Amino acid sequence: MAGAVTSQVGTDTDLRLVHPPPEPPRRAVPSEVLGTMIFILTEIMLFGGFISAFLVARSSAAAWPPPDQPRLPIEETAFNTVALISSGLLLYYAGKRFEQSPASAKLPMALSVALGLFFVVFQGVEWASLLGDGLTLTSTTYGGFFYLLVGAHALHAIGGLFVLMILMLRLQRGQLKSDGFWAGRLFWYFVVLLWPILYWQVYLS
Fold this sequence. Notes:
The chain has helices at 2-18, 31-60, 74-100, 106-132, 141-173, 178-204. By secondary structure, the chain is mostly helical. It has a single domain (32-58, 75-204), classed as Cytochrome c oxidase, subunit III, four-helix bundle (Four Helix Bundle (Hemerythrin (Met), subunit A)), CATH 1.20.120. Helix 3 packs antiparallel against helix 4 (106-132) and helix 5 (141-173) packs antiparallel against helix 6 (178-204).
């Protein structure tokens, strides 16, 4: 009888060794990243609607921009566009460094945030100048669409910078998680990649 019990225990142990308990299923996409992706998709549709309305208004206008409205600072904003794109590239590099050593991501991330702040401040200075020259939200359809498109992007840039600053603070404290960092980077990439499209349509076309 004792031998039978011993044999049974040995068999059970062998079965556990051959068939270990199943591991919990892994999420294909982390919740933070998935939520950010869904939010970005809704924002793409929002800006798609804005740009479509802008194109319709521009094509139906006799002259665009109106002759009595100030011209947009194309060259200065081109420089600002380079600053924003550089911010995105530095954040991408920070993400790569974070995978190898979180501490090594601090400098490129700080530079990315600094360039993002420069972009927002420069756009604010541009707005102040254009308002002084008479381009307002209610001056013409041209002015209305300018502030709608560029202003909506500015709000997203400010929100993205706020998120990046929180992530940078967590990075400094050693509390930044990979999933949260990836989600924040995704949103900033959206802000960065959207701007050249707006610059092309609003400033150059």
